[in-house]
Write a sequence for this structure.
């Protein structure tokens, strides 16, 4: 396999070709409690299913109808998720609650990001669920950025400690695996076959993540799905900005002392 072939698979993971549906989910910012004046360092959102469609264009059209409806009620939309599920399959998930794909849109319906392989448990360790990295242009954050993390019905501040790994990075890893450099290739006393090595080491949907911290140590870190990270929505006070910048500096100092 050439790098170009590898990249093509990374950008367009193989599909099984079954019937699918698209679920449109809207997240709205909840009103602040009576005495609270700032949304940070965390605030609440609510989410609900807008509808289900047969195709992505239909789902995007439904999303825009929801945007127009929100204007009538002065609802503040946080974001939209459009998730893709196969018909007639058990919906057991390896990572997050999406099926074959997940797309992220902002509150105005602008596309922000997407996944690059299936998250279904039935696709784990198959060609349909192999994650081969992200294109460089898809990295929305870099190490040290203060970001918002969507965690259920809560959004909290955190600091990204990295920006994910690129297609090129995974290609180089795969070259090392094929050359048997720096990996274990023996199982139960027997050397593994190439297929067994590939199954053991090749990343899956759970590797599409970004590590973040929300305290002055890497011990506070969390691995967040890339699509659950958003840029700052509201002005950040000087005090809070300094606090989170200091968290990141403390983590770097901690790493230097290891």
């Amino acid at each position: 396999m050439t790098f170009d072939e590898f990249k093509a698979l990374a950008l367009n993971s193989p599909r099984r070709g079954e019937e699918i549906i698209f679920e449109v989910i809207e997240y709205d910012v909840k009103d602040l409690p009576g005495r609270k004046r700032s949304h940070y360092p965390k605030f609440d959102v609510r989410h609900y299913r807008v509808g289900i469609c047969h195709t992505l264009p239909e789902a995007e059209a439904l999303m825009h109808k929801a945007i127009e409806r929100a204007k009538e009620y002065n609802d503040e939309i946080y974001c939209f998720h459009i998730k893709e599920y196969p018909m007639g399959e058990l919906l057991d998930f390896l990572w997050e609650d999406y099926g074959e794909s997940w797309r992220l849109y902002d509150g105005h319906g602008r596309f922000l990001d997407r996944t690059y392989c299936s998250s279904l448990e039935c696709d784990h360790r198959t060609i349909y669920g192999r994650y081969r990295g992200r294109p460089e242009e898809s990295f929305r954050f870099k190490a040290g950025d203060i970001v918002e993390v969507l965690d259920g019905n809560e959004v909290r501040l955190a600091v990204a400690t990295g920006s994910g790994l690129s297609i090129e990075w995974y290609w180089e890893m795969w070259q090392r695996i094929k050359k048997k450099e720096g990996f274990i290739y023996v199982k139960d006393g027997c050397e593994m076959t190439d297929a067994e090595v590939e199954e053991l080491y090749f990343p899956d949907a759970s590797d599409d993540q970004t590590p973040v911290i929300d305290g002055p140590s890497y011990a506070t870190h969390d691995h967040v799905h890339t699509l659950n990270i958003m840029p700052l929505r509201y002005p950040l006070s000087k005090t809070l900005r300094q606090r989170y910048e200091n968290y990141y500096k403390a983590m770097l100092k901690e790493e230097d002392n290891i």
Summary: The CA atoms of residues 147 and 231 lie 5 Å apart. DSSP finds five helices and twelve strands in the chain.
